[in-house]
């Protein structure tokens, strides 16, 4: 009894010689016999007995059979020459006297494939791909019976084997794959027989290497052109360079020039250099500048290959000053200067204290923190105003200025303070049977919360009163602050008394209430007549920042009179008042002129005037005169009745 211990498939090409190897070695007492079975249903036919060929076999088969091998070593292999399709079948090798049986299935290759080829390979034998993408390699054989094996090798390493055709994907090919050899073979693996092959080499479109800047750091001064270059190498095909700036990646490539690319024949790659000339703004200090390169290998991946540098932009400082609020009870009052520039080392110049309207009140030595000199509590309100800090860091600005300035407002909240012109008006005057306005001007920050009038110590009810009406409104006055006369924002508080009687010429006191102690001021109302309204109030001349007006004085009410002009930019609510001269009682009347200065160019101004005598009687206002300061246009004058 024999045991089947091995089954193998063997292929042979039609017309060739095939050797069927028996794995057993025959001893003297044993012999090896070969059998053939053409199909599963056909009986087995003995072919050999030891070295002898079965004489009953067809002659065309018998003549092509030979027992080969090292017979002395007990080898009895079966060789078939001029293999034919009819030779296909199951061949069995039996070692008699043992359980050894081996079956070999002979397949006859009647037609080898006629050709094999790699797809997408041109005459230059290049298989094109792109760095960073998948490269699909396909190879197919034409013909072959049985179906041939197709084997794919990359750099002599087998990567895939399949029937008739093969496909292999190189994932995310990189620069190391470039130039590798590809070989595709067609044949039969079990025979190690590959008569056909096709070759190519991988040729990639290569991304450029990350660009290199021409300097390790990028330093420049604001508003001065920065000139910097970057170079990209290793690209195939040639790359183009682009420039991006800041967090928003603003494209500034238009400000760069690019040299023609250079070619490296040893690697078949390109290098390119771009030079950027651009004036930087301080907002980009500490931000990234990006130099990027792109070509066909990068475009489909959403961008290029980029290198960034942090910008160091030196610039003159912007200066802010803390706007602080104090009260009259704060003994220590400080103003802090905050320059912001690069570099951040500063020289401080003199501080200036200005009025709300830009007039210089005083100056202090320069430093970052200004501690205001102490003054009596009731004078601390005079510290209110604009504080201007000047500093420099060695960098000039775009206006070629070395010293930079900034300002903040200091507010000292205090009890109301009556202005000097109010204190000078202790006596005010009215006329019998007429209406008189008695008033005070007061500096109040915060604005007083309420005010009440009293007549000889008795409160006056002004609401719904036919005799008395009270009001308050903002105004601008001149007064002395820290020894300097300047314009000040203040409030006018007025009491109108109608149909004056003899008994109305008494003392009137106004009391102002705020978050601080109440303040009072008493006015003595005396009898007097009112000066006439100035006549023929008109423009005489105009300039860019000034204009001249003229008028004819009227009756002075038997008192020395002073002429006042009020003006404001058309559309604003606050009037500015200037004293425009005096006329004594015995002075001969003549036409008067006055030049209003320090105005804005090309603006329309509203003007009106009145006269006031030393009896504190004030005339009514003139009609409003509208005058234009000069500009590139034409000056016009309008007279408006209000």
Automatic annotation (TrEMBL):
GO MF annotation, one: cell adhesion molecule binding
GO CC terms, sorted: cell-cell junction; plasma membrane
Membrane topology per record: Single-pass type I membrane protein
Localization in the cell: Membrane
PROSITE patterns: FN3, IG_LIKE
Sequence ranges assigned to domain Fibronectin type-III in this UniProt record: 533-632
Ig-like domain: residues covered: 14-109, 211-312, 317-394
Chief location category: membrane
A GO BP entry: cell-cell adhesion
Gene3D superfamilies named among the record's database cross-references: Immunoglobulins (2.60.40.10)
Keyword Phosphoprotein: no
Keywords noted in UniProt: Disulfide bond, Glycoprotein, Immunoglobulin domain, Membrane, Transmembrane, Transmembrane helix
UniProt xrefs under PANTHER family: IRREGULAR CHIASM C-ROUGHEST PROTEIN-RELATED (PTHR11640:SF31), NEPHRIN (PTHR11640)
The name this protein goes by in its record: Uncharacterized protein
